[in-house]
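ingest -> fold -> write
write: protein_1
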Amino acid sequence: MATSISTKPSTLAELRSSGWQSKSVKQEIHDNFLAKLQAGEDLYPGIVGYDDTVIPELNIAILAQHDMLFLGEKGQAKSRLMRLMVSFLDEEIPYIDDPHIPVHDDPYQPITRRGRQLTSSVPADEVPIAWWHRDDRYAERLSPGTKFADIIGEIDPAKLAAGVSMGMEDALHFGLIPRLHRGIFAMNELPELDELVQVGLFNILEERDVQIRGYPIKFDIDVLILFSANPATYNRSGKVIPQLKDRIGSIIHTHYPLERDLGIQIVEQEVKERETNDEIRMTNDERTDSSFDIRHSSFAGERAPSASSQPSVIVPYFMKELVEEISRSARRSKYVDQQSGVSARLSIANYRTMVASARQRAAVLGEQPAVPRISDLGHLYASSLGKLELDMMGSHQMSERQVLDAVLAEAIATVFKEYVDKHGLAEIAEIFSRGVKIEVGDMLPSSHYAALVKRVPPIWDKAFEVNASDNEAVRASCVEFILAGLYATDQISRSQQRGRIVYET
């Protein structure tokens, strides 16, 4: 029931008069989800590429009022999907406001001894009511290191020392799940959860009660429980107790973006969200001279109006494609452990590194705007190493740097072949047969490239078709893309020393 702050009931009597009705948390989520679905609202903001695969199964699981397991490799938005369940909760729900009650007890159906005592023996106009916001009704825990007492509870020695009987509920210290009564609890990486704790979840999932150390103290817990896991470990025998698997209502299978454009959309969304959060943070700190004047444009020649001395940034679309293709190539690589997966965080981190390199060059050389080039990808070791788990069981043992070099070369060749019409490449490659050498580098000015192109302008017209623009910085990026593509397809050779690359025959 929607109530304004000024009219919110503050006693049990007022709550009863208001017409508020009690619901289980799953029924509450079901009803609110159905209302949003019928109204055509965006159910999962920020989730890209799951419309025809993951989302239909998730919708059915919510309507079926199931506990759920999100099964997928790292970086597939499992945690984001779990956290979005909060949006289907009521904005606020009432609870009995008593310091001696350890949970947010339902005023109509209290589960604690103290709550039942208050509602049965104290006049309704003297039972205080407070309101619990939806944002506070969600908690999550990472499985490794989690103990029984952390999420379920334990006998509190201090209370025993104070004279409380061990068989009384007042002697208990509640874990996260009882404290999330009428809320949502999420357990990440379920296969890493200790077997004793898995056993403790049996009754909660099926019987909806909590039993601590065998004492006959039961609580009718009302909670939606969500899990996440990697398929490789979840399906491994003995990692998850079969009885626990049997009690999970629905399994939602996630996946990586099926198309490159969807991956780019995710990267752009995350980068934009980060910039927006940074701008808000700077505004809150009363720093109005924001340096986040970046406009990630797919259209060459388009530049952001700069309100500060920081250079604006234009990212040609082929550079965005390269960054995403690096992740896609890694997911196909025989050198990378595919059971672990390659997170979307690799693309996001690499994108930011690429943009940072372009901004550094623009700041040092005084260029405007900053435009990323292939040579900026030479800095991706810093943002990529550690995010690729190598297949140590394979017959081809390579270092992580060597694997990244191979993945980058494959990504460049893949995008290059898609972008450039083969007719005309022979002319560009032929200039190298006449002994022409072209030097490129991440700290060379765009004017350096413009001077090179002026020597053979008709030949390079084909290069600028990939991102038409008269801007020198954009054209420099196009030149490097063509040269790197020719090298990746074995049409020219190159030598590299101290950050400079020379292309030749």
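write: protein_2
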Amino acid sequence: MLRTPLFAASAATFALILAAGCLPAGNAVGRPPSSAAFVGSETCKSCHAEAFASWQESWHSKIVRPAQGAFLKEAVEKWKSDGTNAGPTVGNVTGKTFKREDVQYVVGARWKQRYLVKNDQNGNLQFLNMQFNRASGKWEKYGQKNDWNTQCATCHTTGYRITAFDDKSGKTLQSDFKELGVGCEACHGPGSAHIVSGSRRDIFNPANVSVQEQSKVCGYCHIRLENGKWKTAQGAPREDFPAPEAGRSYIAGDDWTKWYPQEAIIPGVHAEDPFDKEYAGDLKGLFLRDEQSKASGLYEEAKHHQQYQGFLQSAHYRLGIMSCITCHAPHAGAGKLKKVADHACNSCHDDSYTVEKYMPNTGKTADNLFVRSHTFNKQPRQGGAGAGSMGIPNYYGD
């Protein structure tokens, strides 16, 4: 059975959006040509200095960084022990012992931090066995036993592509990318042609497409799925979503919801994978499925990085009146301040509508630490602790 997208904007909805002025009338939607190459955010800086500076302060730019200067200060101080739990010492894939000096990259800082060391068996990167929880100030077990390059890198880098794989098993053997972190081209597509021509027709701008298509750009990474086409180096189904062909990268604006649908399980996106189903493996416990959910028909996120699957259920999305970038923006623009998501509700609603009330922290991301729901339930739950309860991270050496 061919899987199909569960939600799609109708022609009538798109026409209403255009009439309402949400799309720039007469401005053709830009798209990088097939020959375009990724050039890196530093290249974009020369013409888009304001956007670049604002992006540099974003969490997108900081999701993966070289270790030097990026360790959380408290994690370094407690590297051997937090007083209860021992710190990270073992590579999850190889089982070999490592020191802090062996860490090549750190992942995250806002909620928690994880650590990447070399897998000398194949040249990839692997996680250490413990992650640092900023809320508790404690070490907690992290059991991801697949190479980072073949499990997470699609959404933690820009321009990621598989370059070699095993035909029989589907294992990812080699891959590369243009840039660590979520750079300019993750949302705008490869920029080489735009640099040469200077034309907006040679670059993708999410602001120039329908609200559903805008959200789909964010949804490519803010989602949880099981990928049966591409496997990790260790042979497990991937949890990210590389492009269908080896050598090809995702390009912003691609309709990834139609990629190899019979080999991927994407709850809430494919009609055959409904929100209210119980899944297995990493997808087990994906959404809250209690009586409150069944009564409202809204299944709030129970895990992290699945905001898109929460938002698809909302009236905001279904009515075509909002997208992710209505409230969020990864950078400021020329003459435009960067959006503050916490203030977005009041642009349409009275002061009784707050993110604390209608976006409770339901998606678990670490022990007693949760990410906001994006279903906008009219009868919201009580949420747990989130990033808003923590201050700005302090880095070792600052």
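write: annotation protein_2
Residues 38-217+226-258 form one domain.
The chain has 14 helices and 15 strands.
pipeline exit 0
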